[in-house]
Design brief:
Elements: H1 13-24, H2 26-39, E1 40-41, H3 43-70, H4 76-84, H5 89-126, H6 134-153, H7 156-183, E2 198-199, H8 206-213, H9 215-220, H10 226-229, H11 237-265, H12 270-274, H13 279-288, H14 290-324, H15 331-334, H16 345-359, H17 366-373, H18 375-393, H19 408-427, H20 442-464, H21 474-480
Antiparallel strand pairs: 1-2
């Protein structure tokens, strides 16, 4: 790909799959958004929306996997955008890289904040006298980011080991939660519950509410570009990286549906649970009792912590690669690699610091925090869309060992249409009446990011950044390899 090696290939096929599977994280995704789905469409959208959206995400993943096989680099999305663009390579690469960066930083911050919120919920359950505050949530998030940065500072073998553990934590945890919800409660909903439709969004249009409910699954299925970003540390990356993307989406789709059904059938007092501060936690308490609910909540918290760690790992590799091509302020710092651990240590701490900056407004206002991190999903999916769209326009795309053959373009077309449609959904109002608290700040956050990137591009970047840099011919680059 034109770069001397600075990272070691220690990720096996399972490790590559593990990082995306952990970032998607069905337990974290479903438990953090289930309450929204109960009010925006109800069981009908939670179940059938999961199936429909997961199918669409498979199209996105397949197109990304094909590109990952052709361009297996840490730069991933922005690198492939620069290579696939026929003109204005630097601009395509620039915008893709910054959307990816902002989306990943937002994802790391949001996951850490969600974990802190559930930790506080556990503390309240354990000690009723404990009073959770916004300030304490921010402080706990800061500690979480610190610990995750420390873990990412050490060798890639440690990260791989933690991700392997996280896969089994997710799978075993999912089985434990599902079995408990099946075996313990005296009463379950009938099969007809999956057809129940509920609209508590404040909007009178049921179709609009149902479309909003699809966001539950879309929120969960993000971050599978992690396998792509770890390409330079994965053995046989042209095959194992695309397989990691597809397996993580496929396995998450199946296991997530099982968990979703278990929660839906365990619902008791629908109105009371849907209006609770944490609906899925209330379902556990009502169905299993306080003691069992607390034990299962520890599984959920652990899943969120694993998710944040994997998010930061992926974020770090994107920063490393983007800086290697001179696209970030202080690029010389951020693409340096520790001679002892062979990891981009400075990029790790930049990722942690940027995530903490996004969390700080939560000290004063949860709405302010939501406004900043809301660009997470939109930023990521738009970054996914750019190289897929450019691949669609590229008549001479050189497929890698893992490819879709003649189905490549049709699959890419479906993927682009779905990304555009889901991105529009993410930017629409999600609750009525619309006020300062309920307003969806995602479009404002996205426009702010694009304006800053555009001003920066025309001011200085277009003269110095021309897209992915080539350090020489394959033989010349091999002679430069630093490991």
């Amino acid at each position: 790909m034109g770069y001397p090696r600075k990272l070691t290939r220690r990720f096996k096929a399972f490790d590559n799959f593990a990082i995306s599977f952990t970032i998607i994280n069905i337990i974290s995704g479903i438990f953090s958004s289930f309450g929204f789905g109960m009010n925006a469409g109800g069981p009908r959208i939670l179940v059938f929306g999961w199936i429909a959206v997961a199918a669409m995400v498979l199209f996105v993943g397949a197109s990304m996997a094909e590109i990952a096989s052709a361009y297996p680099t840490s730069g991933a999305l922005y690198f492939s955008a620069g290579k696939l663009a026929k003109r204005h390579k630097g601009a395509w690469s620039w915008y893709t890289g910054w959307l990816n960066f902002v989306g990943q930083v937002g994802g790391t911050a949001a996951t850490g904040y969600a974990a802190a919120t559930f930790i506080q919920a556990f503390l309240v359950m354990q000690w009723p006298s404990y009073h959770a505050t916004a300030q304490q949530t921010v402080l706990i998030t800061a500690v979480i980011l610190l610990l995750q940065a420390l873990a990412n500072t050490y060798t890639v073998q440690l990260v791989a080991l933690v991700n392997r553990i996280s896969v089994w934590w997710l799978l075993v945890g999912m089985v434990v939660i599902v079995v408990a919800l099946i075996a313990v409660p005296d009463h379950h909903q009938s099969a007809s519950v999956v057809t129940q439709f509920t609209n508590n969004t404040g909007f009178s249009n049921g179709i609009y509410a149902a479309l909003l409910g699809l966001l539950v699954t879309s929120w969960t299925f993000t971050g599978f570009d992690g396998s792509f970003h770890m390409s330079e540390e994965t053995v046989q990356a042209t095959v194992n990286a695309p397989k990691g993307i597809m397996r993580s989406i496929g396995y998450s789709a199946v296991t997530g549906l099982i968990l979703m059904l278990a929660l839906v059938f365990a619902i008791g007092d629908y109105a009371a649970q849907a209006s609770a501060s944490a609906p899925p936690v209330q379902i556990l308490i009502d169905a299993l009792g306080m003691t069992t609910a607390k034990l299962l909540l520890l599984i959920v918290i652990g899943s969120m912590l694993f998710c944040g760690l994997a998010n930061m790992t992926s974020n770090t590799r994107q920063i490393f690669a983007f800086s290697r091509d001179g696209a970030m302020p202080g690029s010389r710092w951020w693409h340096s690699v520790s001679s002892r651990t062979r990891t981009p240590v400075k990029a790790v701490w930049l990722a942690a610091a940027c995530s903490l900056v996004l969390v700080v407004p939560g000290w004063w206002s949860h709405t302010a925090f939501t406004a900043i991190v809301s660009v997470n999903v939109v930023g990521l999916y738009l970054a996914y869309a750019v190289p897929i769209y450019l691949r669609l326009r590229h008549d001479d795309f050189q497929q890698g060992p893992w490819n879709l053959g003649r189905w490549g373009k049709p699959v890419a077309a479906v993927a682009v249409v779905w990304i555009v449609a889901s991105s529009v959904l993410f930017m629409l109002p999600q609750a009525s009446p619309i006020n300062a608290t309920s307003f969806n700040y995602a479009p404002i956050a996205l426009v702010a990011v694009l304006v800053i990137a555009t001003v920066w591009w025309f001011a200085t970047a277009r003269r110095r950044f021309q897209g992915p840099v080539s350090y020489g011919s394959p033989d010349e680059v091999a002679a430069m390899d630093l490991i």
